[in-house]
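Re: your question from the hallway

Yes, I did run it. Sequences:
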Amino acid sequence: MTIMRLVILDNYDLASEWAAKYICNRIIQFKPGQDKYFTLGLPTGSTPLGCYKKLIEYHKNGDLSFKYVKTFNMDEYVGLPRNHPESYHSYMWNNFFKHIDIDPNNAHILDGNAADLQAECDAFEKKIKEAGGIDLFVGGIGPDGHIAFNEPGSSLVSRTRLKTLAMDTILANAKYFDGDLSKVPTMALTVGVGTVMDAREVMILITGAHKAFALYKAIEEGVNHMWTVSAFQQHPQTIFVCDEDATLELRVKTVKYFKVSGSKLLTNDELCQAEGSSKS
Amino acid sequence: MRGGQGTAGARVLRFTNCRILRGGALLREDLWVRGGRVLDPEKLFFEERRVADELRDCGGCILAPGFIDVQINGGFGVDFSQAADDVGSGVDLVAQRILAHGVTAFCPTLVTSPPEVYQKVLPQIPVKPGGPHGAGVLGVHLEGPFISREKRGAHPEDHLRSFEARAFQDVLATYGPLDNVCMVTLAPELSRSPEVIRALTARGIRVSLGHSVADLRAAEEAVQSGATFITHLFNAMLPFHHRDPGIVGLLTSDRLPPGHHIFYGMISDGIHTNPAALRIAHRAHPQGLVLVTDAVPALGLGNGRHTLGQQEVEVDGLTAYVAGTRTLCGSISPMDVCVRHFLQASGCNLESALEAASLHPAQLLGLEKHKGTLDFGADAVILYKSHPTPVSWPALDARGVRVPHWRPHPSPWLRHRLCGAG
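Structure:
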């Protein structure tokens, strides 16, 4: 099955839970083990926080282990000390890694303080390849429609590299740096659009009215490099998980179509099962 | 065993299911320890790519830094001011017994004594690290003999001295070598005190103001010369007056060196200070409050007559008097009782009460990098504040060795306050 899915939940909490359940089911179904790791691409930001909380809950309940999971984060700021409270390393440690049983050797995050930044990016691509590629890449979307830090104008076949951040992104991030624009990092290392497109499956989390316009551009307009998430219209297996507010700029027709086809189709568990069996 | 490169291979302990006192708050966080020091787990994860070797479930307990008592004259029959041949074993006994009160580091205190006593006793009380055997010795606190006659309290009049003649030389002649000394209490109105204070401070010795009739101006001058502590605020000093607040006025003085504030000892045993006075001081200057026991040798002994310095004391319940008088001479309330009483009387939160007995004394002594906190890199000396269930948890030091545990007060209200809502 190669269609794009749009799953719409009533609110942020339900969307987070749906996404977390999907990830959980995917991992469990995969039956990871010593010779077979599940590779997961991970995002940062405020959108996935609810999803991370749920995953931690499933882990604490004993339902989900990350022992045989390898993770690859999408991006990291350049020049920010690793232990800075706003670094993505800190984010991942505090919001996810410290609560679960992942092996530290399997948690990969780009090093924004590497001596040779491009070499660091190339090495990251190599690690993904050596891990057998990404099974499920979870991402978010910026207000300007970017995926990771692939800002408007980024090549849709780009790979992991150094990027200068767009003003929109810097403005959006200012809230994490006491509202002081001069404190916000201006460069980041990021996976490319091409890197994420290589994943076997992609799940994009989009919640909130401020993301609605970007979602509209991403799925109702054409594939174009000004709204890099639009590239996923051409990915064989992508799910957009949204709350109602994020759909505010979509046509009623679009929403009705996806709601009907979605509900006709399957619940989260069944969806997983169906997808899983179609692969094996 | 102290940290550094050598501990890289040591076992990593992770205390979980607990609340830890950090940054003035009780946080729902795990506490990681390696080689006797608190460890930064994020650094461990990303740089060393390691996880914990051992997980300890704390059952919802509060983990707090060990208490530090900067004024304790003895206890359990031991009198630090007695010129014994084997002072060391007396100090060891007290060190071991106060662990049960949550005190993991202390300053053995000597009251006004003749020079022979100082010169015999001081060399026998070296600075010593703590451990399962007992609380650590941080240095000796010398309270007297350079104090006011009028405000000597329980100190023997015969042995009071001045340093008018030769200033610091008089100090050395009295005490002998100051190697093991970390604090001196003196009265700043004594002639030549600024020189003496500067000389002591230059040697890294804290100077405390007490047993004094100094006015605010003399007290401020003393602080400008380097004094940083007030010995048992309110006791043995002039009472607060609205036109001359005296030493008490240091709490809100605007004449202190920039960036500095004064620390002040408080005996919160319910006897030495009226709760209303305690609250006034606390509200005026919460960051400076340091809980001290000022405990006498009768601590832990019960009613009857006992010796303190060169005098006899009479113990009656929770009160100790100079025998035959109504002059208080030190408290016999253990530190954990003082913490609980302070919590109750001041109405402050548990975090503040705990900090008053750990962080603030550590800051006073300039030891806050390694003591009095659970920050990364600090010595991992941890108190378990037990959950109010029949199962009691032992206080553990970083090596995981059991020490006599710190038991909560039998009063259900206090126990509830201590263990919090969850």
